[in-house]
Amino acid sequence: MNKSLLTIAGVIATVSILVACGNNQAPSNHTIPSGAADAKETPAAAAADPSEYDPKRGEGKFNDGNLTLGALNAGMAEKGQSIAATKCNSCHKQTDEKLVGPGWKGVTTRRTPVWIMNFITNPDPMINKDPEAQAMLEICLVRMPNQNLSDDEARNLLEYMRQIDGAK
Amino acid sequence: MNKSTIIPGVLVACFALTLGCKPKNTSTAVSGDAASKVYVAPGKYDEFYNFVSGGFSGQLSVYGLPSGRLLRVIPVFSVDPEKGWGYSEETKPMLNTSHGFVPWDDLHHVEMSMTDGVADGKWVFVNGNNTPRLARVDLKTFRTAEVIELPNSAGNHSSPFGTENSEYIVAGTRFSVPSDVANGDVPINSYKENFKGHISFVSIDKQSGAMNIAFQLKTPGVNFDLARAGKGKSNGWFFFSCYNTEQANTLLEVNASQRDKDFIMAVNWKKAEEYIKAGKGEKEKVKYAHNVFDESTQTAVSEIKDEVTVLDVSKFDDIVYFIPCPKSPHGCDVDPTGEYIVGSGKLAALIPVFSFDKLQKAVADKSFEAEKYNGIPVVKYEAALYGEVQKPGLGPLHTEFDANGNAYTSFFVSSEVVKWNIKDLKVLDRVPTYYSVGHLMVPGGNTKKPFGKYLVAYNKITKDRYLPTGPELAQSAQLYDISGDKMQLILDYPTIGEPHYAQAVPADLIKDKQVKIFDINGNKNPYKTAGEAESKVVREGNKVHVYMTSIRSHFAPDNIEGIQVGDEVYFHVTNLEQDWDVPHGFGVKGSNNSELLIMPGETTTLKWVPDRVGITPFYCTDFCSALHQEMQGYIRVSPKGSNVPLSFSVGKKPEETK
After folding, report:
1. Does B62 share its domain with B185?
2. B549 close contact with A: CB closer than 8 A
């Protein structure tokens, strides 16, 4: 009798935990953790400690130590433009007009360079926890796809965005 | 302590209830801990990939073991509208043959590529039994990469078994027929005179996997059933079971069951290879298709080839020997050491086990029967025999092995799996199957290093195992735990088509090599559209090429005008996504064709011939995002000769349109 009560309590506790975890996950259609067996980071686990997250930097491999900007490099911007044509322009215009996602005009003044670099190379975890990205998701309703940008591709795209915003 | 006794008590009670309701039900064979042995928790992975033939579906299915969950069906020899296989312009050539496009086949057997006699996880080879073909499936993409047709053959059943480094995959004809180069317009009852067997040795390139018919052995006309390569000490030899050594051409059920013994044909393939290298083969003018899927262009090319090198084995006295084997042998299986060859005469009441060492001695000593069979020496039965398993069961078909010197043989007629010891030939255990088992499979059970642990029986008859579904029932597989002395039934599950042979390998061998996306920059399809700005519609006479892109959640272009009834419209859809598991689908109303399912970074083409004037919608068929239902477009179809100009757009608002 006692034992069965304990068991029921245990089941309820387990269910509560599972439900709690489920609630923390942002809705997702095609974004799948890389497999329970080797998931490096689950959204739920990361969300458990929001103090770790730096909304100015975002989350990913880039930080002020490994990203430095100088004068605009027109060659890199040109490469960025070509990458955007294949991987980005279906959803983003270079004006301030929203298509599927927001227009790029002014993005380098709204966000820090490291935030942009992290977001375009690591979108899923950031959409799950970044307040600005979540606000955009409420407007756009389509999660920005991970376009598997290499570090170089991302850096060239950033240069292209700076060029659009008039960097010299 | 109380608790732990209560729970099993409840389980036992549940089982008792089940048994009580169905006293005749075969679940009596299942014991209490079966569920925990096959339970793979949500989000967890199975221990083994299990590649299972789809039989008359023509496809290859992939299951997880021990859960029995269906992970994937890989289209091989049959069209698959779900995946556009055989419908898209890129994949149509994969089903080309010397007879033209053949949309179906009967896939029987499965062979993993091997290195040192152990599966290496690169490719799976499968046979087409009807229109004789051999296919290679790439395990990085789980797609069919190559299909080769086999000349001089009819019914590629004795296939696709391979040597211990996959130097060759063999393809032996089930039906002997007149050679392709001979006049085939002969009386059917001239079998003995005009019908010949052919065994193809298809070489496999170690790096690319590319297949090539290196040579064929021309043999007396019999039916070739199954085969196994030697391994270890017997590497260099191949063993083929043969029936209908009576050479009957009608009512084989009776007329091919006359002789007391048929044969296992032992082939010294290294010797045959030497003769071929020495130029002893004859080049024959034949016709067969060789189809290769190029991953960089994502397009298949079918080439019709016209020559094969044939070695007539009756002209050489040291390539081929027949070993008598009781009553229409089916399985012909070589144990992990390479010493023992197990013949399974499907009408025999015993299982003969032959010794490779004794065979070698018999050949050296010429311990042959006085009379050759169609010019081929016949080794004396006793001279090659190691021993016989007495009274094993009825209708032995196939044998697999564990790592502990045990063999497991399936019995169709008595519907059971029998475990026996290879050395002392004693029966150790037997378990029933439900019902009428054909092939069985132990992970690695045909290799030098069996993994053991599980055995799967693939059954021909399902009857009452599942909820009934009218006259046609799924066939079934049954999973046994063979880790202990006694075999234990732990799961059964339905399968696609008819499961013949299968292979299983540890998941780690394959799962980390998976291609997740195709790099859009590496896409060399000539009809690729690298970004929306390049999307366009081009008319060339009555052919219209639509260069279209897809990304969550729209197509570009999504409005097309100026198409005319009778045009040949080719939609070349490039999926610009670069994220795993984000294919887009593409379906067109009224299209006499399938859908497309386009993987990230891939370009795939659908041909459509509009048959009427009006507005035709198209849409994405694979739920891709919250706005998937918005992923659609329209085509305006005008009468033939109309002056509506060709135009296309995406995102153009009405006031911008002229």
Report:
1. yes
2. yes
Of B43, B556, B579, the CB nearest to A145: B579
Task: Tell me what the mean pLDDT of segment B297-306 comes to.
Answer: 97
Cβ distance B408 to B453 under 8 Å? no
Q: Is the pLDDT of residue A20 over 70?
A: no
pTM of the model: 0.89
CA distance B343 to B334: 9
- In terms of residue numbers, what domain contains A97? 52-168
Find the closest chain A residue to B519 by CA distance: A148
Residues B500 and B527 in one domain: no
pLDDT, tens digit, 9 for 90 and up, residues B268-286 = 999 999 999 999 999 999 9
Distance from CA of A84 to the nearest CA of B (A): 8
Q: Does position A46 have pLDDT exceeding 60, yes or no? A: no
* Residues of chain B positioned with their CB less than 8 A from the CB of A145: 551-552, 577-579, 582
Q: Are residues B489 and B595 located together in one domain of the fold? A: no
Whether residue B3 lies within 8 A of chain A, CB to CB, comes out as yes
pLDDT category at B627 given cuts 50, 70, 90 is: confident
Which candidate from A89, A99, A100 shows the least CB-CB separation from B531?
A: A89
Residue B639: exposure state from Cβ atoms within 10 A (0-12, 13-18, ≥19): exposed
- What are the beta bridge partners of residue B61? B52, B73
Using the Cβ of B652 and the Cβ atoms of chain A, whether some distance falls under 8 Å is answered with: no
What CATH number is attached to the domain comprising A133?
A: 1.10.760.10
Which of helix, strand or coil describes residue B337?
coil
pLDDT band for position A17 (cuts 50, 70, 90): very low
Q: What is the mean pLDDT of residues B137-154?
A: 98
Read off the pLDDT of each residue in A7-30 and give the average, rounded to a whole number. 41
- What is the CATH classification number for the domain harbouring B104? 2.130.10.10
For residues B400 and B442, the answer to whether their CB atoms sit within 8 Å is: yes
- Cα–Cα nearest to B153, from B173, B133, B131, B169: B173
Is A26 a domain residue?
Answer: no
